[in-house]
């Protein structure tokens, strides 16, 4: 249970990756400023988190089951929090989807929206009324750079994050009237199970319904570039956890938070040309015309962004 002065932080999707790291970082806060309610849909996956939390487990960190896709689970979880009092809600749970559109079923696409979009909406609807009544609170949403810029073969995942960006941009205005902050975090690539799970799925797939030329572009052109980008630009879950802590501790939290400044020019390019042609053609050329050049650029970047330099690219240091 939270002691007086401690902020109650509820985080979704803490079984691995970014959610796990945020939970541990906040639970280990030197000033013991947080009581972390780390949630996951299957508590049988708790071991990694419990081990990483060490002696914080049961003190500044407690566990609750929560599936963001279930109305019942969300309500039960929030009802079991003392007085339903959540100071900071961190919507982190999410799933990826990668591949040629023709090979993806409508059910798979709906599952992505059910988790990445409606899952967040469901959480916000459950905690927002109490925050508005108390006239205090902070809602954080783990979006992605793909919530700001479309990426080939990530069509549906990107769409789910764009939907979230639009939803939050609209809601943030109303919430501000009630002194409730809303912040988006937009990481680029992060080395977590997210990437591994997607690459595993992709290697098992046969891409039914997709023509051979598209499959070839996906496997032989897109996938190697994507791996290069992850290796050269990828951040760690700990990097994202540190950014999240800074955002929630800021006296005037920013609405948008790109965690990797290497992506700033890409996002800026989109707004520099209102026809959209600049980004579409730049990505087309990078992928299909300048593939070898891009591979070389990524290799150079990988050397340049050795761990000491990479640390400097992370917002908001
Ligand atoms: N990794 C990246 O490159 C990257 C980049 C930008 C943004 N992001 C975003 O960061 C967030 C965290 O991803 P990650 O990289 O840490 O991936 P991860 O290691 O795969 O973690 C995702 C977490 O979400 C949970 N989850 C999935 N569906 C859920 C549901 N219905 N209810 C509750 N929890 C559910 C997973 O639980 P299970 O273990 O039960 O599956 C897992 O704990 C996601 O929103 C993702 O879109 C990731």
From TrEMBL:
Residues annotated to bind substrate: 144
A single BP term in Gene Ontology: estrogen biosynthetic process
Subcellular location, record wording: Membrane
Pfam families: adh_short
InterPro entries: 17beta_DH, NAD(P)-bd_dom_sf, Sc_DH/Rdtase_CS, SDR_fam
Record's keyword annotation contains Transferase: no
EC number(s) from the headed UniProt entry: 1.1.1.300
Molecular function GO labels: all-trans-retinol dehydrogenase (NAD+) activity; all-trans-retinol dehydrogenase (NADP+) activity; estradiol 17-beta-dehydrogenase [NAD(P)+] activity
Assigned GO CC terms: cytosol; membrane
Binding annotation for NADP(+): 13-41, 67, 161
UniProt keywords, alphabetically: Lipid metabolism, Membrane, NADP, Oxidoreductase, Sensory transduction
Keyword Disulfide bond: no
Active-site residues, Swiss-Prot/TrEMBL: 157 (proton acceptor)
Reaction catalysed by this enzyme: all-trans-retinol + NADP(+) = all-trans-retinal + NADPH + H(+)
PANTHER family: RETINOL DEHYDROGENASE 8, RETINOL DEHYDROGENASE-RELATED
Function text: Retinol dehydrogenase with a clear preference for NADP. Converts all-trans-retinal to all-trans-retinol. May play a role in the regeneration of visual pigment at high light intensity.
Family in the record: Belongs to the short-chain dehydrogenases/reductases (SDR) family.
Protein's UniProt name: Retinol dehydrogenase
Organism in which the protein naturally occurs: Denticeps clupeoides (denticle herring)
